[in-house]
Amino acid sequence: MKECMDSENLHRRLKKISGQVNAIDRMIDEDIPCEQILMQINAVKSALHKVGYIIVEGHLEHCVKQAIDEGDSDNALGDITSIIEYYSRL
User: What is the Cα 86 distance to its own chain's centre?
Assistant: First the structure.
């Protein structure tokens, strides 16, 4: 699986997201207005969505393409269907 992912990029993004979540936790304790907390929550959701997008993109460009190149288009199509189903839930 590492072949289809930019691990450094994903780890960097996830560390940033972790920091954002910790900041939201502190904001609650610091009695920050709800609107500002919700803005930060939305930023975290967007950042996680981008991480998912990067993973889907890498999987399609590597794993699915490889299955198609090897003549296993049925498996590739099933894989694409599964990815779309999972990713659309985010």
Answer: 11
| Residues in contact with 38: Cβ distance below 8 Å, sequence separation at least 6, in sequence order | none
Work out the number of other CB atoms within 10 angstroms of the CB of residue 58: 19
**pLDDT tens digits along 53-89:** 898 888 888 888 888 889 888 888 888 888 888 877 7
How many beta carbons lie within 10 A of that of residue 19, not counting itself? 11
Q: Tell me, rounded to whole angstroms, the distance of Cα 62 from its chain centroid.
A: 17
Whole-angstrom distance, CA of residue 64 vs CA of residue 75: 8
Give the single-character DSSP code of 71.
Answer: T
Crossing angle of helices 34-59/7-29, nearest 10°? Answer: 170
Task: Compute φ and ψ for 8, nearest 5 degrees.
Answer: -60, -45
pTM of the predicted structure, to 2 decimals: 0.80
